[in-house]
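Objective 1b: paired records.
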Amino acid sequence: MDKFQTVREKAVPLKSNDVDTDQIIPAQYLTSVSRDGYGENLFRRLRDTDENFPLNQERYKDAKILVAGYNFGCGSSREHAVWAIQGAGFKVVIAQSFADIFSNNSAKNGLLLVALPEEAVSRIWRQCQSGDLYLTVDLESQTVRTDEGEQFHFDFDPFRKHCLLNGLDDINYILSFENEIAEHRKASRKEWFVPTTAVASGGR
């Protein structure tokens, strides 16, 4: 997993609430056995049925920050939804709130989710629609800034922050304590403990 770096990217407004994982990546496209290829079908059903859908608009084609409403990522637990968003080039999703399982999947795959109050999201939507809006998202300071100097603070779980900033998934995080684990095992070893290899060879 890559370390999360401060990003300054164009934002695209998705003015919808309760966007579920089947809208993000429809079930008929869950055919790959790897993470590759999902990005091209991000929001496929919505893009095919609505020519004015934001991701169909030329002005937003280079956007890397998605700005949605509340309860984003609800529905099924498919991890493919995160893969599709990342595969389409998005680095950050900003919304009023996120579904729990989607939040966990995102954290474990390196996708930053930023929860902001309704008024802040609405202000960002309005600015997106009035012209190109670039946002700077800084996880270290937990802020979202516009080029005009407007700033929004967001809360973030300290453990997940540490993992994202250091590019650690759950396994990598555990392995980062390899020396401490080895020392603990050594200190906890009992004199009466006989390794299975020794038992098999008659204790020699």
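Objective 1b, second protein:
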Amino acid sequence: MLSPVPAAEVTGIAVDSRKVNPGDVFVATSDRVDGHQFIPDAIRNGAAAVIGTHPLSLKVPYVQVADARAALGYISAAFYRQPANYLTMIGVTGSDGKTTTVNYIYKILKAAGLKAGMISTVNAIIGDEELDTGLHVTTPEAFEVQAYLRRYVDAGITHVILETTSHGLAARRVSGADFDIGVVTNITHEHLDYHGSWDAYLRAKTLLFEGLSVPKPKLRPIEPLAVLNMDDQSYEHLQARTAARQVCYGLDRRAEVWASDIQNTARILRYTAHGPGFELPIETQMIGNYNVSNSLAALSAAVIGLGIDPEVAAKGIRALTGIPGRMERIDLGQDFLAVVDFAHTPFALRSALEAGRKMTAGRVIAVFGSAGLRDKQKRRMMAEFSAQLADLTILTAEDPRTESLDDILTEMAAGAEEQGGQRDKTYFCIPDRGAAIRFAVQQARPGDLVFALGKGHEQSMCFGETEYPWDDRTAMRSALADLLEVDGPGMPLLPTSQGDTK
């Protein structure tokens, strides 16, 4: 039997006992470690109350619940006075393209004159204020999400777009967010280390769409909408599991919103969008065919879900000129293209390389790694795709964490060789990421394309349990400056820079 709720005045919420302030309620969640073992530390730091799932008797008020994660979401919403009730909430999930799709929707809502805000893995925008959401962040913690939403309400914002990861959904970080529109980009091979299986990963994504049909006490209610990708393997599953109104988008003309006449160049992406009652040209500086899908998803959410005029939506799509670390060009005057992109999944890497082929008549040179303590199956897959699609592949570090970097590179090298890669001819293993990027630009000929893939906007890299300052864009600028013998930033240093590859 769950315990009754005792009287206790709390002034904040914490899930990390080290960050408890006097007056906080400490919620003992159990993600990778059991939070109950830290309850004594939380109380010593001044916790006014504790919530957990174990039967306990404490000197402070204690509430036993069935699911501490779900409870955290709902008490966070209550603590911040149910901000989602005052907002039209749009959630965007998927393996790839979430941040770009969030930004497209945000630009469309702004073009429509709506007071909009957004939370992505790159940043949060509240009015004219832009906030960094972290180094290796997924969806923020439940109380952080609700704190952001309260700030949006207080700032007069009416619509919020939230990038919603599988981790965030599975860990109930968006419980209490009460989404009105759910959007999926795609669901591919990713995060199986966390979820354990493909089915569990898919179930986590499904939570967003199952929640759409739950009644919500909204100040400005709209008919809920699920925006599904007809081209993706998730389509039939989500279509069957979503009780809310649906719209599908895709390149297949059987979709309700679809694209034709796609023209993808090194500088611009153009296509014709077709939908219920409209046919109009779309233009975006976010290149690559996958951005046809991302912009179609945004178009569907805005036009079908919110009733925004299609011409206004097209204007918003055109207004998105770039996102940090997403197909971001680095130009110091070199005679070849240098691009940094966040592609860190097999599908995203393949899509980036395919886009790269259309961006240049020269060679494609790809620098990337695969993270430690994450889905190991994707290591070989990524190297295999690069061996197939890039002219030169340079395998390097990407957050090895506590795994051996040498072992990770060995696994990736096996994937490259499976597809005919030849070591030190078509593929190279250079553990230090800075040295790898420097080597890549040194190999480039006029008209080539050098890709640094996998880190994008991120500002750190994890070796062991330490986050070291790192930015692929800074590293690329440093390598180009050295090549061109011009002023530029210094190359960030990592443990591998001193020869330690463990």
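The longest helix spans residues 290-306. Residues 191-195 have pLDDT under 50 and may be disordered.
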